[in-house]
Design a protein that fits this description.
With about 450 residues, this protein is α+β, with helices and mostly antiparallel strands. About 35% of the residues lie in helices and about 20% in strands. The chain folds into two domains: about 210 residues, 2-Layer Sandwich (Chloramphenicol Acetyltransferase), CATH 3.30.559; about 220 residues, Chloramphenicol acetyltransferase-like domain (Chloramphenicol Acetyltransferase). It is built from 14 helices and 15 strands. The chain has a seven-stranded mixed sheet with strand order 10-9-11-13-14-8-15, sandwiched between helices. It has a six-stranded mixed sheet with strand order 1-5-6-7-2-12, with helices on one face. One of its GO terms (molecular function) is acyltransferase activity.
C-alpha cells in the first residue's frame, strides 16, 4: 500500500473476540475433509459498505457500533467455532476457542472516495493490512475482521476467512447468520441453517502421514503484471444477452452465471486473439460448482467440485454454444453426485479435478480462465441493524498478487444485474476493456 494511501488511516485498534459459549468437547477436533486438505491456505476477503447509519443508529458513538458487532460476532462464533480455533497441520482444526482478530479503524475521507476510486489499491484500506499483504502466508486467526469508520459517518465491515475452513457458500452463510443475530440479539434460534462441519464424513481425509502431500498450500499464483477492473451488466443488458442465447440454443432458461460467464469467456478469447495477432488460442473455462444439494445445505467446509469446457476453434466461441456446453457439463457433474453413494463422492471429485488438470499439464499452450460466482447469494441483503449495504466489494479486487484470467461475479444492489471483477495480464486487459462487443453490454465501474 502506498504511503499516500496509508496516510488516510488515523487509528487502528485490535481486539480478540471469543465464542459466546465454549465449544463442546465432542466438537473440539473436527478432521479436515480431503477437499479442505486440497485447498491452499488463502484468505477469502469481502467488504460491505454502509452509508451514514440511519434510524436509531444515526447518533450512536463509534464504540457502540463496534460493541454491537463484537457481541453478535461472539454469538455467531458459537455456531462457526472452527474459525475461532487453529489449524493442526493439514489434518484437523483445534477448536480451542482462542477467538478471532477484530480491528477497528478510522479513515480520514468519505466512504465514496474508497469504493468509487478507479484503482483497487484504496479498497485494501478497509481490510486488515497484514492479512491482505500476506493472503497466502498469514498465520493469525482463521477469521479476521475490520470495522472502518469514515469521516462522512459511513462504515465498512470487512471479513477475511480462511479457505481451509470453508468455501464461498460457508462464507455467505456465516455473513448472513452474523447479520441476523445482530438484528435480533435476543433470539438464539432465528437462522434456518444450523451449520455442521462434517465434510470429512462425505470426503474422508488422507491419512495423517500423507496429509501434507495433498495440500497445495504452498502454491502461490505466479507474480505477473496483472490488473483488476470492475464492470457491471445492467438488468436490461442481461436480458438482451439471455435473449441472444435463447434464440440460438436449446437452453431456454439460462442462468445469470451461465450467460455472463460465457460472454466474458468469449470476449476474453476474442481480445486475446487480437493481442497475439493470431488465430484463437485453445482455452479452458474452469468453474466451481456447489454440491449442496445433493449434499445437505447445513454442511460447511469446502463442498464443491469443478467442471471445465474446452474451446479449440473459433466456431466454438459462439455465445449460445458456450452456454450450451456449460449447461451440459454442469448437469453431468450434478447427476454424477446425485446418483452416487457416499463412498463414491471423493473418487468422483478427484476425477473431475484430474480431468481439468490433465488438460493443462499436457497442453501448456492452453489459456486458462477461472470463474467464480456468488450471484445467488444475497450479499446486498446483509443488514446488521442499520440497513442494507451501499456497495459490496468482491474478493479478487484485493487479490495480492492479482490472479491472471480470474473472473468473479456478484449480483448488483438491485439483484437484477451483475457486477464483475476481472483480473488479467496488463496487455490483455488493455484490449479487453476496449472491446466494442464487451462494452455494448458491460459498463466499466473502475
Amino acid at each position: 500500500m502506498s504511503s499516500s494511501v496509508s496516510r488516510l488511516v488515523s487509528s487502528v485498534c485490535k481486539k480478540i473476540i471469543k465464542p459466546y459459549s465454549p465449544t463442546p468437547i465432542s466438537l473440539r477436533c473436527p478432521k479436515l475433509s480431503y477437499l479442505d486438505q486440497m485447498v491452499g491456505g488463502i484468505y477469502i476477503p469481502l467488504a460491505l459498505f454502509y452509508p451514514k447509519l440511519s434510524n436509531t443508529w444515526s447518533n450512536k458513538p463509534n464504540n457502540v457500533v463496534s460493541q454491537h458487532l463484537e457481541k453478535s460476532l461472539s454469538k455467531v462464533l458459537t455456531n462457526y467455532y472452527p474459525f475461532a480455533g487453529k489449524l493442526n497441520d493439514n489434518i484437523s482444526i483445534d477448536c480451542n476457542d482462542n477467538g478471532v482478530e477484530f480491528f477497528v479503524t478510522e479513515i480520514n475521507c468519505p466512504m465514496s472516495e474508497i469504493f468509487n476510486h478507479p484503482y483497487f489499491e484504496k479498497h485494501n484500506l478497509v481490510y486488515p493490512t497484514e492479512v491482505i499483504n500476506n493472503q497466502y502466508t498469514y498465520e493469525g486467526s482463521l477469521a479476521v475482521f475490520q470495522l472502518t469508520h469514515f469521516n462522512c459517518g459511513g462504515i465498512a465491515i470487512s471479513m477475511c476467512l480462511s479457505h481451509k475452513v470453508g468455501d464461498g457458500y460457508t462464507f455467505g452463510n456465516f455473513m448472513n447468520h452474523w447479520a441476523t443475530i445482530a438484528r435480533n440479539p435476543l433470539s438464539s434460534e432465528i437462522y434456518p441453517i444450523s451449520p455442521k462441519f462434517d465434510g470429512s464424513f462425505y470426503f474422508p481425509p488422507a491419512k495423517d502421514e500423507d496429509s501434507s502431500n495433498v495440500s497445495n498450500n504452498n502454491i502461490v499464483p505466479q507474480r505477473e503484471e496483472c490488473v483488476s477492473k470492475g464492470f457491471s451488466i445492467s438488468s436490461s443488458k442481461l436480458t438482451a444477452l439471455k435473449a441472444r442465447v435463447i434464440n440460438d440454443s436449446e437452453v431456454q432458461n439460462p442462468s445469470d452465471t451461465e450467460v455472463v460467464s460465457a460472454f466474458l469467456y468469449q470476449r476474453a478469447m476474442a481480445t486475446k486473439k487480437l493481442v497475439n495477432s493470431d488465430s484463437i488460442r485453445p482455452s479452458l473455462l474452469h468453474q466451481a460448482v456447489n454440491l449442496r444439494p445433493p449434499l445437505p445445505k447445513h454442511t460447511m467446509g469446502n463442498i464443491c467440485s469443478l467442471f471445465s469446457i474446452l474451446t479449440k476453434e473459433e466456431k466454438e466461441m459462439d455465445l449460445a454454444r458456450v452456454v450450451s456446453k456449460l449447461r451440459k457439463e454442469k448437469e453431468e457433474v450434478k447427476q454424477k453426485y446425485k446418483n452416487a453413494k457416499i463412498e463414491e463422492l471423493l473418487p468422483i471429485t478427484l476425477e473431475q479435478h484430474r480431468k481439468a488438470n490433465d488438460l493443462l499439464v499436457n497442453n501448456s499452450c492452453y489459456d486458462l480462465y477461472r470463474f467464480s460466482s456468488l450471484i445467488t447469494f444475497p450479499s446486498y441483503e446483509v443488514d446488521f441493524g442499520w440497513g442494507k449495504p451501499e456497495k459490496v466489494i468482491s474478493p479478487i479486487s484485493t487479490s495480492n498478487p492479482p490472479i491472471k484470467n480470474m473472473f468473479f461475479l456478484m449480483a448488483d444492489k438491485n439483484r437484477d444485474g451483475v457486477n464483475l471483477t476481472c483480473s488479467m495480464k496488463k496487455q490483455d486487459m488493455l484490449a479487453f476493456e476496449r472491446d466494442e462487443e464487451l462494452l455494448r453490454f458491460a459498463s466499466p465501474t473502475s
